[in-house]
């Protein structure tokens, strides 16, 4: 199985620098420090699929810096503008073309940067008292100056799964998908719910299928804006689909041969892109793993 997209990061996250304000200040002044090139939320990618970097002096005058980690001991940063900027959740066709070009480890660095910058832009004010917050821990947290509440980047867990019955897997499509694309079903975990329970609930809600045993396959950070995709396969009790038209436009059962053909670009449906964990899930299932 190929590693899921946005995994395999190459940077040392350097947690020790997050707790040492003097060391963080020294990293900002290090001549080897580099700043990730971002046009809004879109990375600069060269012909070899590598991210673009520049000097910290090239950041906007009002920017604050988040320490992404160390590359062979050399600090790497992302900039968070204090004012303005694009809508945090915006995803353009250009961005998805760039994701197709990025090397795996580079994609992991971009995912970290995008999620952190997005989070900072959304959390200027304290959720407890409403006062302005300030960056601390090298950009891996914000602290309220009024009530001293500390806030940290959140990750939202999402289950993404295939229902399996009699050697076939269930795939579905949403109206927003490109023409012909089908993928695994997915949904957010709810409070007080286990991964297995979320898998069974989502399949029941979206396709009307009761499921039993659930097995974990893999996970992936998904930086739009900050989710953890948890890929699973669940055993369905039968194959009678009752579609929830509010969630899905269509759903169908596919064989392993169908999936292998789709992953090769020749099948009865358009497969998810390689950087999506749905691609990894289909690849793993079609191989019988």
TrEMBL record:
InterPro entries: NAD-cap_RNA_hydrolase_NudC, NADH_PPase-like_N, NudC-like_C, NUDIX_hydrolase-like_dom_sf, NUDIX_hydrolase_CS, NUDIX_hydrolase_dom, Znr_NADH_PPase. GO terms for cellular component: cytosol. Residues 153-276 form the Nudix hydrolase domain. GO terms for molecular function: metal ion binding; NADH pyrophosphatase activity. Transmembrane segments: none annotated. Keywords: Hydrolase, Magnesium, Metal-binding, NAD. Its cofactor is Zn(2+); Mg(2+). One of its GO terms (biological process) is NAD+ catabolic process. It catalyses: a 5'-end NAD(+)-phospho-ribonucleoside in mRNA + H2O = a 5'-end phospho-adenosine-phospho-ribonucleoside in mRNA + beta-nicotinamide D-ribonucleotide + 2 H(+). Its EC number is 3.6.1.22. Gene3D superfamilies: 3.90.79.20, Nucleoside Triphosphate Pyrophosphohydrolase. It comes from the Bacteria. NCBIfam families: PRK00241.1. Belongs to the Nudix hydrolase family. NudC subfamily. This is NAD(+) diphosphatase. It comes from Sphingomonas ginsenosidimutans. The lineage of its organism: Bacteria, Pseudomonadati, Pseudomonadota, Alphaproteobacteria, Sphingomonadales.
């Amino acid at each position: 199985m190929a590693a899921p997209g946005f995994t395999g990061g190459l940077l040392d996250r350097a947690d020790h620098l997050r707790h040492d304000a003097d060391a963080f200040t020294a990293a900002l002044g290090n001549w080897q420090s580099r700043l990730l090139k971002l046009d809004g939320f879109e990375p600069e990618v060269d012909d070899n699929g590598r991210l673009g970097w520049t000097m910290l002096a090239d950041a906007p005058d009002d920017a604050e810096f988040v320490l992404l980690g160390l590359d062979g001991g050399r600090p790497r940063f992302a900039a968070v503008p204090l004012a303005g900027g694009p809508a945090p959740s915006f995803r353009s066709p250009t961005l998805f073309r760039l994701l197709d070009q990025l090397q795996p480890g580079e994609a992991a660095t971009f995912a970290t940067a995008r999620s952190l910058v997005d989070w900072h832009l959304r959390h200027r004010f304290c959720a407890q008292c409403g006062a302005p917050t300030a960056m601390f821990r090298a950009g891996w947290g914000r602290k309220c100056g009024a009530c001293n509440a500390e806030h940290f980047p959140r990750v939202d867990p999402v289950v993404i799964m295939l229902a399996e019955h009699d050697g076939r897997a269930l795939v579905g499509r949403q109206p927003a998908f490109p023409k012909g694309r089908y993928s695994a079903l997915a949904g957010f975990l709810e409070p007080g719910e286990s991964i297995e329970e979320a898998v069974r609930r989502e399949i029941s809600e979206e396709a009307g299928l009761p499921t039993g045993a659930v097995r974990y396959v893999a996970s992936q950070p998904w930086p739009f804006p900050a989710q953890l995709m948890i890929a699973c396969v669940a055993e369905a009790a039968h194959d009678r689909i009752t579609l929830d038209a509010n969630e899905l436009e269509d759903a169908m059962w596919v064989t392993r041969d169908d999936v292998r053909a789709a992953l090769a670009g020749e099948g009865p449906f358009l497969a998810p892109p390689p950087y999506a964990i749905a691609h990894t899930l289909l690849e793993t299932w079609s191989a019988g793993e």
